[in-house]
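Priority: medium. Attachment 1 of 2:
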């Protein structure tokens, strides 16, 4: 598992008293260094209520600024949102989190690792590639293996 390399991600959550119409419902790209992914929480199916925006900084920016003060990171990520929105923003709630093992940079290369005799296995997104779908695929392949090993 030493082969698996993760990249960090500073993630901000912002709440607003009114919808921020100038921000997209979702975004993935490199609009600016401080925003590489964004999601408007209430745009997801079945979600209503307060306008909540989750914004993630790019992996390389996050790595280069890993030890930055949380307050300073909050201002940088908020500034990225303001740049995307084209206007100043006044969140009623704002928080950032330093997610150290957020993105898979170099996966293990196999769906799972383990020992059937000892019944210990490792699965997850770090095995195949990033994203939750890879974690599901990793677990699914292990389940298939175990099902055939028992049969």
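Attachment 2 of 2:
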């Amino acid at each position: 598992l030493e082969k698996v390399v993760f990249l960090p991600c500073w993630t901000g959550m912002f709440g607003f008293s009114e919808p921020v119409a100038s921000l997209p419902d979702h975004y993935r790209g490199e609009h600016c260094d401080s925003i590489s992914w964004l999601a408007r929480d209430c745009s997801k199916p079945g979600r209503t209520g307060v306008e909540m925006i989750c914004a993630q900084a790019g992996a390389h920016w996050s790595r280069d600024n890993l030890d930055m003060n949380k307050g300073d990171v909050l201002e940088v990520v908020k500034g990225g949102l303001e740049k995307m929105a084209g206007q100043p923003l006044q969140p009623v709630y704002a928080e950032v989190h330093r997610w150290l093992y957020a993105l898979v940079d170099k996966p293990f290369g196999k769906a799972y690792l383990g020992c059937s005799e000892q019944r210990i296995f490792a699965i997850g997104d770090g095995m195949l590639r990033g994203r939750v779908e890879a974690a599901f695929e990793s677990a699914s392949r292990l389940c298939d293996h175990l099902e055939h090993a028992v049969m």
